[in-house]
Design brief:
5-stranded antiparallel sheet; alpha+beta; Energy transducer TonB; signal; TonB_C; 147 residues; TolA/TonB C-terminal domain
């Protein structure tokens, strides 16, 4: 059973099976709050949904977090600060690990400069298909992300 879960986590980078026997799927939705994606100097080099942190998936934890992310002039994540989350503080460490791994590229045409970003990550669980999990996550992302 553990091997099947690990295999699924490696094979399905966008959505993962959180509970294979119950056939529940998970999804992660990234929302660019400030600057908007089209106004940003730095954008992630790989534009796909972030991976669901294994720590959260194994515990069946869903929720959201709003983070202030600082991208330095070299395109590296310098700082990740939790602004708010549900559940409170549980999402910070696993999400920070994911965000710190992101690589950034300058798409603005301007010289490299430090940029602060405000982003929201929604970690959603539930749904019997990948499509259903994405729909649930889109709905969750419309809700307030603070207690």
């Amino acid at each position: 059973m553990k091997f099947q879960i690990i295999k699924l986590l490696l094979i399905l980078p966008i959505t993962i099976a959180a509970n294979v026997s119950a056939n529940n799927f998970a999804d992660v939705k990234l929302t660019h709050i400030k600057p908007g994606k089209s106004d940003a100097q730095w954008i992630r080099t790989k534009q796909f949904s972030p991976m669901y942190p294994m720590d959260l998936a194994m515990k069946g934890i869903a929720g959201c977090g709003i983070f202030k992310v600082t991208v330095n002039e070299n395109g590296k994540t310098d700082n990740v600060e939790l602004i708010s989350s549900i559940p409170k503080k549980v999402i910070y460490k696993p999400a920070k690990k994911v965000i710190k791994k992101w690589k950034w590229q300058n798409i603005s045409g301007h010289p490299n400069a430090t940029e602060e970003k405000l982003i929201r990550l929604d970690f959603c669980m539930g749904g019997k298909t990948e499509a259903e999990a994405k729909v649930r996550c889109a709905e969750q992302a419309k809700l307030k992300c603070s207690e």
